[in-house]
Amino acid sequence: MALADILPRTRRLLPAGLPVSVALSLFWLAAMLICAALADLLRPYPITRMDLAARLAPPLTPHHWLGTDELGRDVLSRLIQSVRVSLVIAFGATILSAVFGTTLGFLAAKARGWVEHAVVMLADFQAALPFLILALAVLAFFGSSMQLLVGLMGFYGWERYARIARGLAISAGAQGYAAAVVQLGASPARVYLRHILPNVASTLIVSMTLTFPEIVLMESGLSFLGLGVQPPETSLGNMVGLGRDYLTTAPWIMLAPAVVITLTTLSISLAGDWLRDRLDPTIR
Amino acid sequence: MSRPPLLEARDLVRIYRSRRGLTGAVTEVRAVDEVSLKLRAGETLGIVGESGSGKSTLGRMLLGLDPAQGGTVLFEGMALPRFGTPIWRRLRARMQMVWQDPLSALDRRLTVAAQIREPLDIHRIGTPEERPARTASLMTAVGLRADQGGRYPHELSGGQRQRVVIARALATNPALLVCDEPVSALDVSIQAQVVNLLRDLQGQKGLGMVFISHDLKVVRNLADRVAVMYLGRIVEEGPAEQIFAEPRHPYTQALVSSIPVPGRPLDARILLQGEPPNPAARPAGCAFHPRCPLAQGLCRTRVPALRVPEPGRAVACHVTAGAQSPVAA
């Protein structure tokens, strides 16, 4: 059947106004979330189980549908576990940095004065510091653990949210709807949470869709350097890093997690754009 | 009268400081300079003046939105609490503002009904179950249809948006309404509707209203008393019909003569000479003297005080305030 025939049909199955690309992104993200949640059930083998008779088996080998790595570990099993670990880190850290940065930005816009100076200075400091070096130092001192990794990644990119939130809140407060709501007698919490936050959310969401893939890659980088997720535990970046040695002879070890990273970040970006438009009643 | 006026301002001063460049000297702009006024309950005070005359700043100060560097604002005999304090916030239920640009004064992500309802939620007026009915009656009162409540601000016309802003301002049944150029962003055909709406609502609810505008026609239509501002000072104040019939200050005379009257040739206008005033470089003496056709030596050196030539009127002019008969224009 030609693609032209299939497309209108699938379109009819979708809710009205949902583009196919967004539907696919949402589907992929849902699949990833299910994968992360049910990793223990979906995994065909434990991630450390070695099948030494079938080392470096190519994909589509029976019992090892995505092949095996150099130790004969099932790539599919490791991939499913990696999705869980990486998603926890990336989602956790993205949300953490968005909440932290936005809160500081709003705080700066509300308090002005020395509080604002302090926040802006911290943001400049963060932006000027190579984050990888900071992360390496922290991980080298405290050792790597999942909580520390999420917390550390949560500091990645917060200065962007802080700057955006501060700038938008100040401009909203100087004139327009925020000043009008203040004049109505609303408490600062109401002004910021009910009025300013929804109005600046679209910009923040776009910023989140940019930070998310960066955090995935940052985690990959740290894992590759041996300071991120520690073997035998596995993550997408970890898999890419370890698979690099076999790039020419067994590319599937690296390609499988790389494809997952690409598709997930692309889906996040598409779904984020769509969500931003949906949240804005003036575009609908 | 023993009862204090609804609103009283005493010697309000507001100075803006601005610096040109990093090392430039700080220039002071006295946006509002020793302004005193009184507003009784149910009365409408029009404040007119050119842009830059400080009338909007004055309006914000009357509501406590801008702090005064000198002087006090008394609301029902009590000094206004500081901006942002819980007491100040609670007082918002009694005093409200109508903004110049309704589209920017409304939150574009909330429906119109949600925004009209907001003051009721903030000040916990009525039970949550009663509020939709109260919102609907407010919408009817300002001439909006009930089914427009689900719309977003950008889906309404300019006049309808301003009606939403007015409905929101009236939601708590305030005693004082400050309207800052409420119709200048609207089409002329819509202006009349909104002005009539404001006048009707003011009559029904006995609102005290401060109406700030540069449009003399609108002010004449609406105001009981008029205060004319020039470079941060009130130069003339009095009952609206007297101000428009026989203005005393030369500036007011020029303003009044600029209102087109059907059947009268335009030659009778007084054309003001010179540059529009720059608030940062305020002329010495009477600020109006460089443009004043009647300026004398005294005007260049001494600031004229507000004098009362007859009860209910005040004029700040060395030349005309003392005169018993109106000066021929």
UniProtKB/TrEMBL annotation, chain A:
Lineage: Bacteria, Pseudomonadati, Pseudomonadota, Alphaproteobacteria, Rhodobacterales
Protein name: ABC transporter permease
Keyword Signal attached: no
Similarity comment: Belongs to the binding-protein-dependent transport system permease family.
Gene3D superfamilies xrefs: MetI-like (1.10.3720.10)
UniProt domain ABC transmembrane type-1: residue ranges: 83-272
Localization in the cell: Cell membrane
Organism: Paenirhodobacter hankyongi
Gene Ontology CC: one annotated term: plasma membrane
CDD domains the UniProt entry points to: TM_PBP2
Membrane disposition: Multi-pass membrane protein
BP GO annotations: transmembrane transport
Keywords: Cell membrane, Membrane, Transmembrane, Transmembrane helix, Transport
Membrane spanning stretches: 20-42, 87-109, 129-156, 196-217, 252-275
From TrEMBL, chain B:
Subcellular localization(s) per the UniProt record: Cell inner membrane
InterPro entries hit by this protein: AAA+_ATPase, ABC_transp_ATP-bind, ABC_transporter-like_ATP-bd, ABC_transporter-like_CS, Oligopep_ABC_C, P-loop_NTPase
Domain named ABC transporter: residues: 7-256
Keyword terms of this UniProt record: ATP-binding, Nucleotide-binding, Transport
SUPFAM superfamilies cross-referenced by the UniProt entry: P-loop containing nucleoside triphosphate hydrolases
Main localization (coarse): membrane
Membrane topology qualifier: Peripheral membrane protein
One Gene Ontology cellular component: plasma membrane
Superkingdom, taxonomy of origin: Bacteria
GO MF annotations in UniProt: ATP binding; ATP hydrolysis activity
Keyword Endoplasmic reticulum: no
GO terms of biological process kind: peptide transport; transmembrane transport
Keyword presence, ATP-binding: yes
Pfam families: ABC_tran, oligo_HPY
Protein family per UniProt: Belongs to the ABC transporter superfamily.
PANTHER family (UniProt xref): D,D-DIPEPTIDE TRANSPORT ATP-BINDING PROTEIN DDPF-RELATED, TRANSPORT ATP-BINDING PROTEIN
Full protein name: ABC transporter ATP-binding protein
